[in-house]
Amino acid sequence: MWKGYLHQTWVSFYFSVLWPMWKWILRKWTGKCELLRITSEYPKGAKRTKAIERSLKHSNIAILKQLSKDEIIDVIPASEEVMKIKDVIPEVHPQFAYSFQVCLCQICGYKRLFAEVEEMRKTQYSSDNPDHEEKLMQLWGFLMPDIRLEARLSKQWTDIGFQGDDPKTDFRGMGMLGLNQLLYISSKYTALSRQILSKSHHPTLGFSYAIVGINLTSVLYELLKKQTLRTHFYNMKDDKPSLHDFHELYCYMFKEFVTFWFSEKPKDIMEFGRLRDKFKKKIKQKLKEDLTTILKFDADEELSV
To answer: Three-state secondary structure along the chain?
Structure first.
């Protein structure tokens, strides 16, 4: 308890007193404000955008602080306003405007992406919703094209990794986000998803395809919520991340986890929780320790299991 209190006190003192003093010294010495120093000295990508985000967050100027919070920003007028506030002369520093706009676009885009994902997660599956039911039927069709589903409530659902005769109960935690991601990989990368489904029926190393997929949605959601995925998205492109990008990352996670699962050779499915957490820790470390990381998905590469 005291450790946490002392840590918070130190952090507050550092950013409210020591850091502003250091920034003032650096500005006098270099003739550049912190934002200008970051855009000119840091390479584009996560290192630059995270530094800009941190600077805006801890700024004593309300307009700048707000830029670190907003989901929707008109980046061109926003950057022009910042340049006026910080006395950045465009003729002297022509690269600043574009570099700063890219960072702003990525920062607010990440927040907007989380809002979209959260809304989808909170939307619960309803068997009374024709769109939800249609998506579930499509999932079956992509994974089991040669086998007819005999009834909506059927033990056949366990063949693609659901726990019982009605898949809707398995979507409680992740809502429609869980179904949409299972459908995304199954529809866009059908060959890969069928290959994973086939591997899931391994006699000794098998797992429940759908349940594992929903668990990986949960892992990805947590990484997004805790801002761990900023490294990947800020490095991926000079633009805001989209829901499509999030789903592509899910495909990467699913493929990588299956490879990881077989490499670990678990004794039985009861080891799933431990290995899921180990896999998540591995991904987190990769994103935190190397700010140049991009979790690149290659659908054409064969599963190495």
So the answer is: CHHHHHHHHHHHHHHHHHHHHHHHHHHHHHCCCHHHHHHHHCCCCHHHHHHHHHHHHCCCCHHHHHHCCCCCCCHHHHHHHHHHHCCCCCCCCCCHHHHHHHHHHHHHHHHHHHHHHHHHHHCCCCCCCHHHHHHHHHHHHHHCCCCCCCCCCCHHHHHHCCCCCCHHHHHCCCHHHHHHHHHHHHHHCHHHHHHHHHHHCCCCCCCCHHHHHHHHHHHHHHHHHCCCCHHHHHHHCCCCCCHHHHHHHHHHHHHHHHHHHHHHCCCCHHHHHHHHHHHHHHHHHHHHHCCCCCCCCCCCCCCCC
Nearest in space to 131 (alpha carbons), one of 174, 197, 183: 183
Per the CB < 8 A criterion, the answer to whether 235 and 293 are in contact is yes
Q: What is the pLDDT of residue 22?
A: 45
Distance of CA 6 to the CA centre of its chain: 31
Q: Which of these, 143, 118, 280, lies nearest to 210 by C-alpha position?
A: 143
Chain-wide mean pLDDT for the chain? 91
Please give the model's pTM, rounded to 2 decimal places.
0.89
Each residue of 244-265: b (16+ CB within 10 Å) or e? ebbbbbbbbbbbbbbebbbeee
For residues 272-298, average pLDDT: 92
pLDDT band at 298 (very low <50, low <70, confident <90, very high): confident
pLDDT over 50 at 141, yes or no: yes
101 pLDDT above the threshold of 70: yes
